[in-house]
Amino acid sequence: MSDQNASEPDKSLLDLVQSERECEQFRAFAWEGSFPDYFEILQRDPLVARNAWQRLYDMIASYGWTDGGPKTQVRRWKLFDDPEGDGRDAVYGLDEPLAKLVQMIRAGACGFGPERRVILLHGPVGSAKSTIARLIKRALELYTRTDAGALYTFSWHVDGEVIPSPMNQDPLLLVPPLARRPVEERLDRGARCEYHITIAGELDPVSRHYYGELMARHDGDWRRVIEHVRVRRLVFSEADRVGVGTFQPKDEKNQDSTELTGDLNYRKIAEYGSDSDPRAFNFDGEFNVANRGILEFVEVLKLDVAFLYDLLGATQEHSIKPRKFAQTDIDEVIIGHTNEPEYKKLQNNDLMEAFRDRTIKIDIPYNLSIADEVKIYRRQFRGSSGSARSIAPHALEMAATWAVLTRLEEPSHPSLTLLQKAQLYNGERVSGFSREHVREMREANHGEGMSGISPRYVQDSIAACMVSDRPVISPLDVLDALEQGLRHHSLLSNEETRKRYAQLFSVAREQYEEIVKREVQLAIASDREAVDRLCSKYIDNVKAHVTREKVLDPGGRQRDPDERLMRSIECKIDIADSRKEDFRHELMNYIAAVHLEGKTFDYRENDRLRLALELKVFEDRRDTIQLTSLVSTVVDPDTQDKIAVIRDRLMREFGYDEVSADEVLQHVASLFSRGEAQAGDEEVAA
């Protein structure tokens, strides 16, 4: 029980449910005042008068960003980490396209042109297009509930009747055209931001009707007219169809353009006597309800041509054409998304040239970073820890490795493998390649990530493993499930592509074997004192070799440097015999430079040397531990004790549980046993 609950034991359940803060929040959202009251609000905070693009950009910026650093050199906008949803919809590995999206929104906020375009998110199925749109819509809703994101609309109060603005328009549109310029200038000076505050557009047909009627009644006295206006706070809600709209194509028989622009209210036609009276029209199409906010078009290119004409006017002219009425101004951001086959149809359709010209296409590819792909799967299965089954280390990583490999194009460099290319994209080091090489590869392969295996397929395969009878889901289990499902994959009609994807499983399995062999090696060689002693011995011999001196053995006798020892270590990191002198001199120069700076040399800071020393210790101890005896039926107690120590190290240092650690030891033992058998066969053949 929390301290708060403990200190208030007498509170009823009703008291616990309703808080004073919620009451205050409701009152703030239900605020209502006169038109002069609204002007006072504007004088205090001119940003209240922002248009839809400006408000959307400020909302995104309000979450902040982090610098991508030298690896990507692009900002990562924190909104797409899904802070409001505790990361459930976080988008990983798409920093560059998301930065471009925010850049376009910012340019639209400044009035540089994108505000007259449809933002088109284009990518393969499962590449997070819908997730991106959902994050933006949800965050915009929440932003309008804050002081920074507050906005207002108005209602008419005429002869005892209350008529809300049907499109939730800004009260500033009631300002007469001749008076708008000085009001804009005043607001602009107070806003002090990178964009300009403007009063753009005209009143909707219903408000024009009442405005004209009241102007006639009061003989053109504008001040008397606005006495009939009550301004109120506006809060966006997709569920209530306020400020946020979503439109999804249906079949032609069940859909017409009135879903976008509204339709006649036949019940009121008899009351008002005409179907062209704005009061007899329902301004409840998706364009209407999304006014001042955002409208998402799901699979926008599946729309009928008639709908696309409405879309063109909404983007370029910021207006729509309701039936029986003149062009009606709107203020909203329009985001559509589509997949590759639909976009190819658009490119091949000459009749759609006008639409292509009014879209800003932003490619949303699949992830090309293994680490980011793992985050997607971990997010999906992070709640599975309470299950009777657990996921072994590297299971998600191997699934991600295979998925990323399917999305990459073959490297053009002759000495670079596809796996190494994936490792470079993952920020890992590959000998002979720099960040500049990675940048060049990305620029040369613009289409990478637009095809390949979807994360959904991988998630479904992992889910199938999760309901199996095995207590621990191993990497090999996941790869087997992925391979079996590939034969029936509904989106793979090309047999050549299917074969290529199947061949990549061997690459992923080989990579897994290298990883677990390395972990077992480290577990065997994790005796820190033994590695330290070996390093000290190696450095002493290298120093003596470089300075042409002798080495003192443990008995105090002088002898020549141990060339065999030095080479046994250097060969572990592929130092050729012709390069050994250069390597040893470089190492001694580095140690001298470290000492000149007043520091102590630490071999653990040199990855290559540390790896070589650990592999040497492993090699020296491998025979004494007899790991290959695990695959035999009889294991002596002394060997079992040594293996138990290795198992404990795997659990402590690499995150295995007892079952998965035993499986890894068995697997690595079989690999070593197989390797020894092959070596024996080669000797016999020789």
Notes on the protein architecture:
This protein has 686 residues and is α/β, with parallel strands linked by helices. Among the domains are: 370-523, no CATH class; 626-686. Helices cover 52% and strands 10% of the residues. It is built from 30 helices and 19 strands. The strands form seven sheets. Strands 8-11-14-4-15 form a five-stranded parallel β-sheet. The radius of gyration is 34 Å and the shape is elongated.
Q: Can you give the mean pLDDT?
A: 87
Strand count, sense and barrel status of the largest sheet are: 5 strands, parallel
Number of helices: 30
Q: Approximately what portion of the residues adopt beta-strand conformation?
A: 5-15%
* Computed CA radius of gyration, to the nearest angstrom: 34 Å
Category by helix and strand content: alpha/beta
Terminal CA distance = 75 Å
Annotate the secondary structure layout.
Elements: H1 3-7, H2 13-17, H3 20-29, E1 32-34, H4 35-44, H5 52-62, E2 65-67, H6 69-72, E3 75-77, H7 95-109, E4 118-122, H8 129-143, E5 151-158, E6 161-164, H9 177-191, H10 205-217, H11 222-225, E7 229-234, E8 244-247, H12 258-261, E9 263-264, H13 266-272, E10 281-282, H14 286-289, E11 294-297, H15 305-316, E12 319-320, E13 328-329, E14 333-338, H16 340-348, H17 353-357, E15 359-363, H18 370-381, E16 390-391, H19 395-407, H20 418-425, H21 435-444, H22 455-466, E17 472-473, H23 475-486, H24 495-524, H25 528-547, E18 551-552, E19 558-559, H26 563-570, H27 580-596, H28 607-625, H29 637-654, H30 658-685
Parallel strand pairs: 4-14, 4-15, 8-11, 11-14, 16-17
Antiparallel strand pairs: 1-7, 2-3, 5-6, 5-7, 9-10, 12-13, 18-19
Helix pairs in contact: 5-7, 5-8, 18-19, 18-22, 19-23, 19-24, 22-23, 23-24, 24-29, 24-30, 25-27, 29-30
